[in-house]
Write a structure and sequence with these properties.
With 312 residues, this protein is α/β, with parallel strands linked by helices. The chain has helices spanning 18-26, 46-56, 75-85, 109-119, 157-162, 172-182, 210-224, 228-238, 246-260, 269-285, 287-301, and strands at residues 5-11, 34-40, 60-65, 95-99, 103-104, 123-128, 130-134, 137-140, 152-156, 186-190, 197-199.
Length: 312
């Protein structure tokens, strides 16, 4: 298989972090065929850093968007991602990765990921786990195994096309995984020490603060279609992780505000059946057993993707 992969990095005001990401990507054992960094209207030193990087590394291309006045998460991140994707022909690449601009990527990361894909034709999306650098220590962000992490989603291009790409809503980075399963692809993340990513700031803190991030998380889960009983379980679980208590409470409050306010939700009935069945199985059996069962079902019900004449 080809090892041509495309990186797309939406970023805004990342002067404190982006150079670390650039340095870690530039020493990969397999370099990207192209890396599009979308500057989403930065007002700090980010444009100057990107200009230097573009001159130094021939695989880097910078796309500049106008300043819209503030950082926009959720749909704003996806809009910036697509601003980069629209500048290339995706069929020129075997793999596609949405990579955040505040990560340190371990040496050999992308080569190891592509080896996983080459070993499993059902694998559609994959990543390592995220560890946040906080006061000199690395803290596991404890994201589930059922999806590639939103900060570094690495896709087989055919899978990305098959699911129709990302939805332009908060919750996009969870919806894509369930769309993969619906279409007969396996998606997951792995806590292999050799593919652990370092996050230079805590997840969910990029817009205003952690409280705003947790409210947004709950709103995203509402849009995804999560049931209230499942969200209550998620909130209770997250109360025992930093930020203690208020993190879980904020997630549930964000969900309830969206529900009471009649906010829009995913209306794909096939997706909702797959998604809610997965959530219920996760509550009854635990996430790892639920994921194992769903993956086994995919291998049983679907032929390998490279043998399918059309999308399943």
């Amino acid at each position: 298989m080809s090892q041509r992969y495309l990186l797309i990095t939406p970023c805004r005001d990342e002067a404190d972090y982006i150079q670390n990401t650039i340095d870690s990507v530039s020493i990969q054992s397999v370099l990207p065929a192209k890396w599009i960094i979308v500057d989403d209207g930065s007002t700090d030193a980010t444009p100057a850093l990107l200009a230097v990087a573009q001159k130094k590394h021939p695989f880097i291309e910078v796309v500049r968007r106008e300043d819209r006045g503030a950082r926009a998460v959720g749909s704003g991140v996806v809009d910036a991602f697509y601003a980069g994707l629209e500048t290339v022909d995706i069929s020129d690449y075997e793999y596609l990765c949405k990579l955040d601009g505040d990560l340190i990527v371990p040496a050999g990361y992308f080569e190891r990921l592509m080896a996983r894909f080459e070993a499993d034709p059902y694998l559609g999306s994959f990543s390592g786990k995220i560890y946040t650098l906080h006061e000199g220590s690395l803290i596991n962000e404890k994201l589930g195994d059922e999806n590639a992490v939103g900060a570094a989603k690495f896709f087989r291009t055919r899978c990305f096309q098959d699911i129709g790409g990302f939805v332009r809503q908060v919750g996009w980075d969870g919806i894509d995984g369930h769309m993969c399963r619906m279409k007969g692809w396996i998606t997951c993340s792995d806590d292999d020490p050799e593919i652990r990513l370092t996050h230079l700031r805590m997840m969910g803190s990029t817009q205003k603060n952690l409280w705003t991030g947790r409210l947004r998380w709950g709103m995203g889960k509402y849009y995804m279609g999560s049931a209230p009983y499942y969200m209550l379980a998620v909130a209770l679980y997250r109360m025992f992780q930093k930020p203690y208590v208020i993190g879980g409470f904020g997630i549930f409050l964000g969900y309830m505000r969206a529900m009471i306010g009649g906010k829009p939700r995913m209306d794909d009935h096939q997706y909702l059946r797959v998604f809610r069945r997965y959530e219920l199985t996760s509550l009854l059996l635990g996430k790892r057993r639920a994921l194992s069962r769903h993956n086994a079902s995919i291998r049983e019900k679907f032929s390998p993707p490279d043998e399918r004449s059309t999308a399943p």
